Amino acid sequence: MHPREQTIFALSSGRPPSAIAVVRVSGSQAGAALRELAGAIPVARTAKRVLLRDSVGEAIDDAVILWFPAPASATGEDVAEFHIHGSRAVLNVLIAALSSIDDARAAEPGEFTRRAFENGKIDLTEAEGLDDLIHADTDRQRRQALRQLQGLLGDRARGWRKQLIDASAWIEAGIDFADEDDVPEDLARPAMEKIAQLRREIEQTLAASVRSERLRDGLTVAITGPPNAGKSTLLNRLARREAAIVSPHAGTTRDIIEVYLDLDGYPVTLIDTAGIRETDDPVEQEGVRRARDRAAKADLVLWLSDDHGGEPDQTIRSGETSLWLIRNKIDLSSPENDAAKQGQPAAETRQGTGERQFEISAWRGDGVDDLVAALTAFAEALLGSGEAGVITRLRHRNILRDAAATLEKAEALAGEGDELIAEELRIAIHFMGQLLGRVDIDDILDSVFKEFCIGK
Ligand code: GDP
């Protein structure tokens, strides 16, 4: 039997141990699995409590089972669900029992979703939305993924595809009936107007979606500065846990530590870089090199200094990365200095440089709330509310950009021959098919579904 026709099974809930684990079975043998283990197939879509038994009658677990006959199931095939106690031992026995059923095997990553796609339950953009929803860390990512799963981009692509087919039909009619009298004189003109309008719509969608693509991955903020400036202390305060080793000895953080933050729904990866300074120690030199590298790629660099900290490294300053200067350890300032600073805002913009300045005590917490508020505003400015965009992946962007370029070519061919325009339209329709996963399936599918987890 071809692997695609075999029955698949997998743990679909989290890793054991857990209170309950859900094992899903999809394929023609799903009913056989229920009969074998539970004695009978229960009423469709109704939970039933049973004692599962293996082939020699030995009890496996007290479980709840569900039956979703094809085609009204998640995959479009017969689906059985076993809700068991979530220990490794119970799971192992159930998986062993399922493995002994003819033509049943463990599922590959994403295989349930792939079957749903192949059986027409969802299009490719919805499958991608499903994957994003499973991996969403913040509430904004969840909302964006859910819109995708509900077909926001898919519906738009289907609409474009249909209109392109209509425009193409008008052009083709003009070609086929060129010599006949009863065909309206100029079928090409409304078709060309339609093509121009669709091209504009696609370009607008691309422009509106720059931020929604970024929301999927989030921002990177690098904390840099000389050794002992308090970078790890700040990272720990921001992360509210002991992610980096805080030590009074210079040069402790030799590698890069990453901490993940959810700032009001915006995903931010915070990087603590090794103290940037000249050193002869080769291990530390490597840390410094990596720190510079990461900082150069970050969306924002926080340059931390204490009273002796001085100016940021020139290599950090270069490039398009935003740089904020943060003076740490203000708790050590003398009372006279503090009195002189009374009334100054905690955050200010240095004249002419566009860099922002903050004064904090990472250790005591002064000024950290202002810094977090500023980071959140920075993330919002770059990632947006996520409401406007519909494209979330480079795959979508590349296809739509090619589609818009093809339509532009078609527009430029006006008057040069309907056959040439019709050919460009066929290509544009093909692109919409690619977006929805209707054409060139094998190439695209393998790359999309390999990102999925097993059991999904
Ligand atoms: P890093 O090398 O930049 O990561 O610096 P650490 O976070 O390891 O801090 C170096 C030393 O400075 C440690 O002894 C910290 O406790 C201390 N430190 C960090 N932040 C502050 C602060 O705001 N005030 C004071 N007084 N000490 C701090």
Automatic annotation (TrEMBL):
Which residues are listed for Mg(2+) binding in this entry?
A: 232, 253
Cofactor binding description: Binds 1 potassium ion per subunit.
Q: Where in the cell is it found?
A: Cytoplasm
Task: Name the Enzyme Commission number(s) assigned to this protein.
Answer: 3.6.-.-
Gene Ontology annotations for the cellular component aspect, listed alphabetically: cytoplasm
Which residues does the record give as GTP binding sites? 228-233, 247-253, 272-275
Presence of the UniProt keyword Cell wall biogenesis/degradation in the record: no
Keywords on record: Cytoplasm, GTP-binding, Hydrolase, Magnesium, Metal-binding, Nucleotide-binding, Potassium, tRNA processing
Q: Report the Pfam families cross-referenced here.
A: MMR_HSR1 (PF01926), MnmE_helical (PF12631), TrmE_N (PF10396)
Query: Which cofactors are reported in the record for this sequence?
Result: K(+)
TrmE-type G domain span: 218-380
Binding of (6S)-5-formyl-5,6,7,8-tetrahydrofolate occurs at 24, 81, 121, 456
InterPro entries noted in UniProt:
G_TrmE (IPR031168), GTP-bd (IPR006073), GTP-bd_TrmE_N (IPR018948), GTPase_MnmE (IPR004520), MnmE_dom2 (IPR027368), MnmE_helical (IPR025867), P-loop_NTPase (IPR027417), Small_GTP-bd (IPR005225)
Region ranges (Disordered): 334-354
GO BP terms: namely: tRNA methylation; tRNA wobble uridine modification
Query: What is this protein's function per UniProt?
Result: Exhibits a very high intrinsic GTPase hydrolysis rate. Involved in the addition of a carboxymethylaminomethyl (cmnm) group at the wobble position (U34) of certain tRNAs, forming tRNA-cmnm(5)s(2)U34.
Similarity annotation? Belongs to the TRAFAC class TrmE-Era-EngA-EngB-Septin-like GTPase superfamily. TrmE GTPase family.
HAMAP family to which the protein is assigned, alphabetical:
GTPase_MnmE
Q: How does it assemble?
A: Homodimer. Heterotetramer of two MnmE and two MnmG subunits.
Q: What protein name does the entry list? A: tRNA modification GTPase MnmE
